[in-house]
Predict the 3D structure of the following.
Amino acid sequence: MSIAYKKLEEVCEILDSRRVPITAKDRKAGVYPYYGANGLQDYVAEYIFDDELVLLAEDGGNFGSKDRPIAYRVSGKCWVNNHAHVLKAKPIVNVDYLCYALMYYDTEGLVNGATRQKLTQAAMRQMVIPYRDKTEQEQIVDEISQVVRLIDKRKEELLLLDQLVKSRFVELFGDTPDKDKKMMVDICKIITDGTHQPPKFAATGIPFLFVSNIVTNEISYDAEKFISEETYAELIKRTPIAIGDILLSTVGSYGHPAVVKSNKPFCFQRHIAYLKPNADMVNSEYLHGAILSADVQRQIDARVKGIAQKTLNLSEIRKLRLPVPSMEQQKQFAAFVEQTDKSKYYSSMSYRSCQHAASNFRQEWMICQTSNS
């Protein structure tokens, strides 16, 4: 069955002319969300929109990603900066249908820019979405939304399990006096970061990881970039990675640690710190929990530098202070984490299954990269 397609300007109003950027120093704190290319950035004292809208990244978006959307829904009073296109659905299209159609749109050939890709308004006007009657749109939205709700529920379960581990850490080690804590540099054999020079990428091969691959406190090997085995062999000489080592994000979603749990080879960018624990002093599960503890996270927040891009430097990581209890106590904590991880495994499997189902639905109903000529 053939599907009709309509250009964006046929199904929505483009409200970009009403956007107003505010620099961080000029923003007045308030209750209204301040949105950018990839979501919420701040809360401000005033608003410029009060509507049901879809925001589509203009520059700095997740263009080319298969699992990070380039569009999202907002509702009610808000402020939008000039890094996101502002779209208001016309009566002929359901606003959620519009959003689902744009979230994972293939923008190849539409975006430009070497370091920071941009989807100009002229290019955006060339985008098309599959057009159906409102009843069918609403049925599709209902089916996708049911799966999205399940995804949100599984995400909440994973967050609660992470919180349980944090609570257990506080219960066991939270009252350690500062004088009895040790600096990170004293309990790790190596503290360094990934390659500073962008390697030559290959179509397939060894995964090359970015900060986005570890922000869930686990390592995702679903890389979008790969390097050859020859390049990997050269890079790994600098940071030979082993099971039990820890990766720590240092920009954007800084402070997220992940423990290496397999021998699967990979390399990573310079915005990821690499910590090799001294096994005579700490085990990796304990160190992972310590980094996630409220006390260490507060230290991390106090040590980040920069305004536009928050960065946690290696020199500051080395100064972080944390308790180092007996190995017996650490093993007790690690055993608790292991049991919790079993629950997380099943929740994660369900979460990924729901994500796969949502992706299949979008592919089935939201194939937008087709000319309407």
